[in-house]
Design brief:
The protein has about 300 residues and is mainly alpha-helical. It contains 17 helices and 4 strands. The strands form 2 sheets. The protein has a two-stranded antiparallel ribbon with strand order 1-2. The N and C termini lie far apart (about 45 Å).
Amino acid sequence: MVPEQAAIANAYLDHLTSEDLVLLVPGGSDALRAGHGQVVQHLRPEGLEELLASPRVFDAVFATAGEADTLVGASPFLVFAVAVHRAAIELNATSYVSEWLGLGRRAPVFDAAQLRDFLAAPWRRLFLAELLASYTHVASGSVLVSTRRGWRRQRFSELDPVRLAGLLEVISESERPGILRRLGDLSLFLTGVFPDYVASRGFGPIEESRLLRSGVMVNSRRSPSSELKRMGVGGGAVGLLEQLGRRWYRAAFDALPRPVPGNVAVLGELPDRFGDARRILSFVTERFLFRHRDHWFELGGG
C-alpha cells in the first residue's frame, strides 16, 4: 500500500468506532464479537475510502434514520465522512450548486468543477469530516487573566468567535496556532452550516471591533467600519467571518513548524480555497444533514 494511503486510512481508523466498522465491513458483526482489532483485520485499509463512498454504506448509515430524529448505529464522524464522500460523487453529476446570498436567498452558482477539484484530495475530505465531527462536542469555560485591577476570569466558547478571538490577547505564543486554527474552523463551520444563524445574529460594533483586533488584522488601529471597507467585506456577518477565517487559517499555518504533515497541510490551502470548502459544507448540509443539524450542533450559550 502507498504510504500516504496507509496514513489516510489510519487517520480514519482513529475516529471510527467498532460499531462504525461493523457498518463498513460486510459480516462485521461476527468479527466484532472478537473485538475491535478483529474488525480492522477484515478491512482493506487501501479500500477504506472506497467503502465510505459506496452506495451500500451510504444506505446503511442514512437508512437507519427512518422516521426518527437521529441516525442510529453510526458515530457522527462516520455520518459526516460518508456524507462528504457522497457529496463528491453527486458533484460529479452536476454543474452548479446553490449559493447562500442572504436570509432566505439562494441562487445557482456554476462552480461545481472547483468543488470537485477540492474534494479530489483525500486529506481535504478527511479535514471536512473531522471539522464537522469536532463541533458535536465543543469546549467552553474561562481562563484567569491578569489585569491592572487584579485577576479576572475571561470566558470563552468554541462556538463564539468574539470570545474565542479574545483569547489571542491573553494566551501564550505557543498556544496561538491552536486558537487561530480553531477560529478558522469556526468561521468555516458557521458560514458553511449555519449561515442564516450568523446573518440573523450578526455582530454589533463592539463585537466587530474585537474581531478586527484579533491579532491577525493588518492595521488594528483603524475603526471597524474603515477596516471593513478596506477589506472589501460584503455579505454582513457571513462575509466578515469568511474574510477573517481566511486570515486566521493563514496565520495558523504560518506559525506551524516545518515540515508540515499532510493532514495539516490543508490549512495552508484554505486561505485561498475557503469559499470552496464553505460551499461544500453548505452542499453537504442541504443534501444530507439539514434534518439532523440542530440535534448534532448546539449553538446556544457560550
